[in-house]
Each structure stands twice: as structure tokens, then as C-alpha cells.
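$ fold --in a.seq
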Amino acid sequence: MAFVVVYDANALYGNTLRDLLIRIAQAGLVQARWTNKILDEAIKNLASNRPDIPADKLSRLRDLMNAAVRDCLVEGYEPLMEGLKLPDPDDRHVLAAAIKAGAQVIVTSNLKDFPAEELTVWNLEARSPDDFVLGQIDMDDRIVWACVQQIVDSRVNPPETIEDVLHALENAGLVESVAALRNGRYNM
């Protein structure tokens, strides 16, 4: 069975990064998990920063995300929150969800909010999206490359190339991962 990861809201915010993370889960490399509260935060930030996206489209995005990954929603984590200590108490729900899900990794861009000394007690670690994807490339670069190709194939209006998708991932902070993909044997 694939190891369990919890995607934080900031990892699910950007379109291309979110697409890659979900496809990595669909490919069976990991069992991705999140909560309704994590999705609320991601969607709220998208609505705030992108007022051009209609509310019904954001609602559809949420539904598609939940339908895309089997057993993705973590529930019943709330009682764990009270006893958890993190620099930002508003992040306790993410740690509580990871504990409840039996996750090994929290994928987040806010590493400072998830200090190792608070996570190791729970056999958890926080990884940046770049470190996480790089780890997936190390495990099976062919599958990650296939996920990138699937993104390219899905983007037809307007069409995008491999370079367009890699550039978007790089802009999303996946600098080392994109370099590894570009240098890999599956580069086209």
C-alpha cells in the first residue's frame, strides 16, 4: 500500500501543482488525504486572489478534487486538535488530520509552521512540494513523467506543451523537481 500524505491548502492552491499532486495520487504512488477545512482554505484563497473565477466553478473544482482521489477526505480529526502545539495554532487541523489518517508526510509550503520537533512525536515529517515531488521522481520517475504528460494532454484550450507545464511547475516552486525531470531519460 502507498504511503499516506496530507496535502496542505497551499499545496492545493495552484492549478498545475494541484493537478500534478492529484495525478501522483491517482497513479498510486501515494494515498493523498485532505479535509474539508483544508479545501475551504484553498478555495477561499483562490476566490480572494482570483475574483474572476465564478463561485460555481470553485465549487465544481472542490467536487472534482474529492472525486479524483479515492478516500481523500479525513474526518473525525477535530478532537485531536486541542492537545497539539504548533507555531500557528490555525495549522493544528492539518496536523490532526495527518495523525488521524496515519500519514507519514504533510506536503506544505509553510515548513516553519510544522517544526520537526512537533512532528517526530507522531512519526510525521513536513516536506515542501518540491522535496515531495523530487522524492516521487526518485521512487519512479517514469510515473511522475507520465503524470506531467497527462497534464499536457488534458490542456487543450489553449493547448500546452511539456515546456509550458514544466515552466508552470517551476513557477509554483518545483525548481529541483523540474530540473530532475528535464535531466531525466524520459525528457522529450
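$ fold --in b.seq
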Amino acid sequence: MDTEVARERLLQLQQELRTSIEETTSRMERGVYSDDPAGGSDFGDRGAHEQQAAEDEGVLDGVRRRLNSVEDALRRIDEGTYGISVVSGEPIPEERLEALPDAATLVGEEL
């Protein structure tokens, strides 16, 4: 994959991920988990809201990890090592980079 095309895709993905983090964090800080403006007093509602908050925390963790991966890929572009596995040093197939522009390894390799 052309590194400039990859850079543009990664920068767009970076912005989308940052926006997602900001929106989710804001929702969590405001405690917005109910359609009821009073916040709901039903125990079932509170349980559902707590579950939604826990799910959001999990999603937020995943989005942060993906953002780190995208930023690592942008650094590899700057260093001239983009498209090369950080594990084996072998080229990452074009198809993998098109599907996952922040890929750092070959399929089957683990960090």
C-alpha cells in the first residue's frame, strides 16, 4: 500500500477514534444512560444503567488500544518501516494492510 494513502486512512481513523473516545467519555461523565430525565429510580433501570456503563468502559478500552495501534502505524510510516512485521521483519501483505491499515504483524504472529 502506498504510504501516503495509508497515512491518510490512518489519520482519518485516528480522528474517528478520538471522537469516539471523547463522546463515550463525555456520556460516562454525565451518567447519560436513561431516557428518563429524572435518572430513573427503578432498581432494574439502575442495574441496566450500570451494565451500560460497564460496557462503555470496555468499549472505551478497546478504542484506546486501537488508537494506540493507529498512532504506532503512523510512527512506522515516519520511520520508513510501515508494512513490515514488527515480529518477523517480513513484508505484510497488501491485502492485510488494506483491510487493517494499522496491522503491525503477519496473520498468525503475536506481539
